[in-house]
Write a structure and sequence with these properties.
Elements (H helix, E strand, L loop, with lengths): L4 H17 L6 E6 L5 H6 L6 E4 L1 E2 L2 H14 L8 E2 L17 E7 L7 H14 E11 L10 H13 L8 H10 L2 E9 L3 E8 L1
Parallel strand pairs: 1-2, 1-5, 3-4, 5-6
Antiparallel strand pairs: 6-8, 7-8
Helix pairs in contact: 4-6
């Protein structure tokens, strides 16, 4: 089973924010994009008996790892992982239907993927989320054109040296992107290790 140390470190803090975001009065279907090793799916769903979690990834090794993680933890509310390439139109997202998702989540993808993946994520959210649904993204971000602290500045430079399309995306850009898809920026939460959770809500 693939072990992702970053996911192991951030799963607890992410869960605490999710406790404030997840409705408890009805069944919740959550689609996770770029699930990696499946750590968040296995850990977070245990706190929400009303949640069904659909993990996904583009890489077969991650899909295999998700399956192993779910089997090892024995959680029953996580569906078999599906292959989704977020850079492709939502119609190719493993049969996901318009307005079928109460929530969508994406952890640590935006800064280490081509810009078309971020665009695809928000375009997909605009179609797949129910009215009032939430897109929750986690990672390091630039805020109003400013990257801080200095370690994040160096991290951004390191990423862009590997691929010019990588690097920290700015909140203003993401807000503009979300508005084009019928979403509104709703909330920002400071997280450990200079990361943030950004929440966008569909009108």
């Amino acid at each position: 089973m693939k072990r992702v140390s970053a996911a192991d470190r951030n799963k607890g803090p992410i869960l605490e924010v999710m406790r404030e975001l997840v409705p408890r009065d009805r069944p919740i279907y959550l689609l996770e994009l770029a699930s990696g090793g499946g750590t968040h799916a296995a850990y977070i769903t245990q706190a929400f008996p009303n949640m069904t979690w659909q993990p996904s990834d583009i890489e077969q090794r991650c899909l295999d790892s998700i399956s192993a993680c779910i089997k090892a933890t024995g959680v029953r509310s996580v569906m078999p992982a599906v292959r989704i390439d977020v850079s492709q139109p939502w119609q190719q997202w493993a049969g996901q239907q318009p307005e079928s998702c109460d929530m969508m989540m994406c952890v640590n993808m935006i800064h280490i993927s081509p810009i078309k993946c971020t665009q695809g994520l928000f375009e997909g959210a605009g179609v797949l989320l129910k009215p009032g649904g939430q897109l929750v993204v986690y990672g390091p971000f630039s805020i109003h054109g400013v990257i801080s602290p200095e370690s994040n500045v160096r991290f951004d430079e390191h990423l862009r040296a590997q691929n010019p399309e990588w690097g920290l995306k700015d909140l203003d850009y993401l807000t503009e992107l979300s508005q084009k898809q019928g979403l509104q920026f709703h909330r920002m939460v400071d997280m450990p290790a200079n990361n943030k959770i950004l929440v966008f809500k569909k009108g």
